[in-house]
Amino acid sequence: MEQRLSADALLSNSFFLTRRFHKKIFSTVGLSIFFTLLVVAGLGIQQNLIMTGQLQRTFWTQVSRLCPDMTENTVILMEFNDDSYDQGISFGGRFPRILGYIYKFPDRWTDERDFRQATQPKPHRMVNGWRERVTLGDDNQIKITADEVLGRDFQPRFFSSNTILLTVQNNLLTRQTELVLKNITLPLKPNNSSFEMPPYRSNVLFDDLIIP
Q1: Is residue 21 part of a domain?
Q2: In a domain, 154, yes or no
Q3: Are 19 and 11 in contact (CB under 8 A)?
Q4: CA distance 149 to 141
Q5: Total number of domains in the chain
């Protein structure tokens, strides 16, 4: 009877140790797989951040080279027929303010209390179909609302003579010379600048967003 109990106890202990051993193996393997996936995910996130950073720098460098004549009250309309830029560029929130973080504009152009009163150059990402919804004043002043532009802090009224329109053609950012609204062709701001880049001092985001 005692031998049978000892054998049963030994068998039970062996089974218990085997289960603990297997659990330890599974736990170790599970942790190994988890940390491997974590490292892979981390590398993927890091790669995405690098790609996003490169896209941001390429985009804002192109904008600067296409708009060296941006000046007081200039509105830069960005019209993209696809979402390729939306995947790496954040157009929401305070997007119209960003040029003021890249370049140091004259103090009289800025207004921290009410940005809509600021006269610094302002980029606007227009939504698809915006041309059909905007209105024109008697003096051909362009009027837009929150329905035609992404984000906030947009300029609700502006003249085409100080407006720049950027579109995408053959995957390249291109500056247009005119804008057709309501069957009316409006001449846009001509680029008569002798500068290749805007002639302003660099601000806090210049080194991060502009390629030398």
Answers
A1: no
A2: yes
A3: no
A4: 17
A5: 1
